[in-house]
Amino acid sequence: MWYNRRVMGKATDEEVKLAANTLRCLCADMVDRANSGHPGAPLGMADMAATLWLRFLEADPADPAWPGRDRVVFSGGHASSLVYALANLASGNGALGNGPTLDELKEFRQWGARCAGHPERGAIPGVEVTTGPLGQGVAMGVGLALAAKKAASSNKTWVFCGDGDMEEGVSHEACSLAGALKLDGLVLVYDSNGITIEGSTAIAMADDTKKRFEAYGWKVYTCDGHDIAALTATFRRSSKTAGAPALVIARTHIGCGAPTKHDSAGVHGSPLGAEETRGLKTALGFDPDKSFFVPESVYGMFAERAALMRRLSKRWRREAQKAGGKAAKTADYLDLVKALPQYESGSKAATRNVCGEVLNALAPLCPGLTGGSADLAPSNKTYLKGMGDVAPGDFSGRNIHYGVRELAMAAIANGLTAYGGLRGYGATFFVFSDYIKPALRLAALMKLPSMFFLSHDSFYVGEDGPTHEPVEQLASLRSMPGVVTFRPADPRETAYAIVEMLLCEDRPTCLLTTRQNVPVLDGVRHEGVAKGGYCLYESGPQDSKTILFIATGSEVSLALEAAKTLAGEGRGVRVVSMPSMELFLAQNTGWRESATPSFMKRRVIVEAGARFGWDRFAADPATTRYVTMDRYGASAPCEVLAEKFGFTVENVLAAARAAAGVEGFAAGGNAK
Q1: How far apart are alpha carbons 268 and 31 in whole angstroms?
Q2: 347 CB burial (10 A radius; 0-12, 13-18, 19+)
Q3: 3-class secondary-structure state, position 162
């Protein structure tokens, strides 16, 4: 179709160079004014950025959400001043699509400014993903490119990266997978200047990047990153590469144009200073006494490009409207609930198995759900049956075989979700959640609803031993702002939790599932799961002498058995299941008080994880007991471990009696 043609524009090489030098001066001014930032990369990358924007990038500043646009990512987020300067020029000083004005550029890195220290999704149009931790942008770019293939789109994904990105392990994982999948449409532009903060890259990096990427299955091109004609020819060739992703190794000079700091490590993260900036502007033919100056001809070049892109995007939307295509959406709450498998009271099942059953039941109602496991699908049970695999050159399936690559998996899932129309997910053992946390944190910052399924959630893994038995990971996930973690008690809570994850639109979610069988419980309520915690069982007087059990996951059934034993003795008891501590704490006081009344001070908290974070639920420390896992696990059958670690009905009962102040138990500490 017409809108699929790559449109070059009319700017000459000399005009593109003028635009690049304008970017250099703007970036130097921004960093100097803030007295904070990274001028080196923006000065070195300005020629590449100007060439891409004025000759190749298909993006409409007046319609930044145009689905047919190219995606561009600055994985080296420290080059944020370049991102904002580009957005200013492309939008005609903010006249189009809410781009930043020159006045906003002057507020770079200040409180409340949209031009933050590293690019943040949602703040400035055109920033597709939040970047900063090196390598994450590369991996998210792979996810964006994969999403484009799944959408059968011809748009390109351009990713700028630097030496630091190439050193970080997540980029190795993601690029290896992209090569294996023959993921064309992805162009990785490597700003190869040979300098990092500590000096020359030679002190820590000796591999041959070209050979490494060729071994991955990429097509590799090299060029002078400051030669506009060479960049144009190389970008043209790389953007047309078929059957493989493309790497452009652009040889550049960090701090290009700075009179004395050119090619120095010091220019990476320190302002040029007044005299150096004056020297830069003089060398580039700009008035050294003018700050934040943009020649009208430069705005004119970008305006011409914007007009061309406006026609392109309008044509695209007209063609899409004629085709009648609409983005498929997740079904509503009622339809999802109706499709859930049913589980009979008294039966038992491992919640990892339930997770697989529920995902497969709901996947037809959630056409955007796409993801996979880090080589653990048979254990995680997250494979979508009958929905095909993403394979080399064939991106139609909904199952992604990530291989043993948790770091890249999580970041790629974020890229899939950020693209729009897809819900990316990843899965692994819970003990390996440490590998996904960098991307999980970025998902929370971006408010992306990526989903993560983490099986084998406790020491009940058993014989595999302490390396595979998570202890502190629950507390770690719960400490992340903007992340919701579910640890369901039984199959019914698991099903309801997955519904809540699918309906969530503004944050990442994690589901923890068991390896071992757990009983299907009575009293489970969807509303209770949605609110994070609720009263599952109560008996006898509900007053200040009531023993209140708070438990999660597989330990809820332990608490129930202990409570029922005490109820048989005539004691008032209550069991609260708390599948999501974060959601429960976010509820209003009324709901929290209805579940965990403040006058019930005799409490037993039961969870096969670290005690850390649970003290907030102790209404009175003297009458609160904890059955928690505050040591590493061991290798043995899970039944033996449960007895050795105190996760038995007898020990939970002992803790309850201690909380009630009977049988001479001392105040405080675990009952073991």
Answers
A1: 11
A2: exposed
A3: strand
Express the helix, strand and coil content of the chain in percent, nearest 5 each: 45, 15, 40
SS (H, E, C) 444-479: HHHCCCCEEEEECCCHHHCCCCHHHCCCCHHHHHHC
**H or E element in which residue 396 lies:** none
Dist CA 461 CA 463 (whole Å): 7
Determine contact, residues 171/165, Cβ cutoff 8 Å.
yes
Secondary structure class of 139 (helix, strand, coil): helix
pLDDT grade, residue 134 (50/70/90)? very high
CATH architecture of 333-519: 3-Layer(aba) Sandwich (3.40)
What is the average pLDDT value for the chain, to the nearest integer? 95
CB 624 within 8 A of CB 618: yes
pTM: 0.96
Question: Whose structure tokens read 């005609």?
Answer: 92
Torsion of the alpha carbons at 109, 113, 117 and 122, rounded to the nearest 10: 180
Task: State both tokens at 343.
Answer: 């589980």
Domain range 531-659, its CATH number among 3.90.1150.10, 1.10.10.60, 3.40.50.920, 2.130.10.150? 3.40.50.920
Query: Which of the four pLDDT bands, split at 50, 70 and 90, describes residue 662?
Result: low
C-alpha 264/C-alpha 255 separation (Å) is 7
Contacts of 396-402 spanning 24+ positions with Cβ under 8 A: 396/150, 398/363, 398/369, 398/370, 398/371, 399/371, 399/372, 400/146, 400/370, 400/371, 400/372, 401/372, 401/375, 401/377, 402/177, 402/372, 402/373, 402/374, 402/375, 402/426
3-class state of residue 49 by DSSP: helix
Query: Look-up: residue for tokens 């005490």?
Result: 566
Where are the chain's structural domains?
Answer: 15-317, 333-519, 531-659
Residues recognised as catalytic: 406
pLDDT in tens, 277-315: 999 999 999 999 999 999 999 999 999 999 999 999 999
- In sequence order, what are the residues at sequence separation of 6 or more whose Cβ sits closer than 8 angstroms to the Cβ of residue 546? 540, 571, 572, 573, 574, 600, 602
Residue 360: other Cβ atoms inside 10 A: 17
Q: How far apart are CA 272 and CA 168, in angstroms?
A: 27
Q: What class has domain 15-317?
A: alpha beta
- Is there a common fold for 333-519 and 531-659? yes
Which residue matches tokens 């053992």? 429
Supply φ then ψ for residue 547, to 5 degrees.
-95, 120
**Pairing status of strand 534-539 against strand 573-577:** antiparallel
Residues 422 and 143: their CA atoms lie apart, in Å, by: 11
What phi-psi label fits residue 467: left (phi over 0), alpha (psi between -120 and 50 degrees) or beta?
alpha
- Please determine, for residue 201, whether its predicted confidence score (pLDDT) is greater than 50: yes
